[in-house]
Design brief:
- Helices cover about 35% and strands about 30% of the residues.
- By secondary structure, the protein is of the alpha+beta class.
- Strands 1-2-3 form a 3-stranded antiparallel β-sheet, with helices on one face.
- A hairpin with a 3-residue loop joins strand 1 and strand 2.
Amino acid sequence: MTESLFGRLYRFARSTEVDQRENFTTEALGAAIRAQPAPFFAALLEHGVIAESPKGTSVLVVTQEVVPGIGIIDLTVRVYRAGDLEREIWIEAK
């Protein structure tokens, strides 16, 4: 069963292993990007992180992702075009 957004916010806000604000912020940002990715990409474009905003693509947002040999990435945003991974953005919320 998939946990709801509010369930994840509540669970991570109560975490004692890491600063609760970091987890809450990560989950809230992930939810915002899932709901409407355009403002996120507009901010990346404005600050020169990406050269152009993706269009006609799908976006997958993953929070608290375990990456072997790296650790836990707070937020991963994957952009797909025609089913192929076009880019992957890792974000550490602090």
